[in-house]
Design goal:
CATH topology of the largest domain: Rossmann fold
Largest sheet: 7 strands, mixed
CATH class of the largest domain: Alpha Beta
Structural class: alpha/beta
Order of helices and strands: HHHHEEHHHHHEHEHEEHEHHEE
Number of strands: 9
Amino acid sequence: MTTAQIDEAKAEAFAGKMLGVLNDGCLALLTSVGHQTGLFDRMAELPPSTSEQIAATASLNERYVREWLGGMVVGGIVEYDPSTKTYRLPPEHAAFTTTAAGPDNFAFFMQYLPLLANIEPQVLDVFRSGGGVPYSAYPKFQELQREETGRIYDVALVDTILPFTGRLVDRLRAGGAEVLDIGCGAGHAINIMARAFPGSSFTGYDFSEEGCAIGRAEAAAWGLTNARFKVQDVSQMDDAGKYDLITAFDTVHDQAWPRKVLAGVARALKPDGTFLMADINTSSNLEENIDHPMGPALYAFSTLHCMTVSLALGGEGLGTCWGHQTARQLLKEAGFNQIETQSVEGDVFNLYYICRK
């Protein structure tokens, strides 16, 4: 292509976009460091301070803190006063970078980038050969997932999300209800529910022994006697008519065989039971995701994790952005004739499906 064939303004704008991608990607890594070292939390508590003061408060090496602060300043996250050589995290920025921000803590999500970058060589291989990267290849994944779900479910599961199911909450409170969480991961949601409703019984299924072990340890630490965890391929469930409530939190799109999983869920529910499914709030149509505020991130998560772990098992590889149209189609195929949806303020990822047969 000759220079005359290029729209120079368009080319210049795209070059600027690519430079922004590079800068923002590097800033994301520094933001992950700030979250993991607690620097954002410490700075939110301090008045304008020098790098020495910030490092001392956080019990960190000053030289590293100073260099990190440089990136935060030029990246527009931290403010700097050259006359006093002091740094300040504005409260407007602390509202989205500190642990106290809860579901609004976007700094937390930056941890996924170095994790996924570690998997990149294996993903490059399967781009060429097909197949996928197994779930077991991802270091710290259970730990990050537990932290991610905790941000939402600690504050919203009992008081906001479960009430979407209507009178079922009264049944849980009265006792005797049976609840199953499929793809429970580290089991935090199960333990939250078990603690809130001590008279009902809660079971978590996951094929990760690591995740189940974390769930059991937390249940023991909380003194729970009504929570149990079982290593189980949820596409092979043989329960029938047992559960009042089955939940699935951000897990169906990862499954190798989602249709088998959803059919098993329908079988496992009592006739008047409810399936509560949280999954990614996107469209099944690519063109409708172009303006999604987290579109690039979701497709990256899918390519580097959600889709490939399904393909690693020879599965369908639905991907993160399978979308609400496909979700409804698969739910109907499984036998759910009543499907409602709800959303939770502050949860930028999920749509909540309340499903009955």
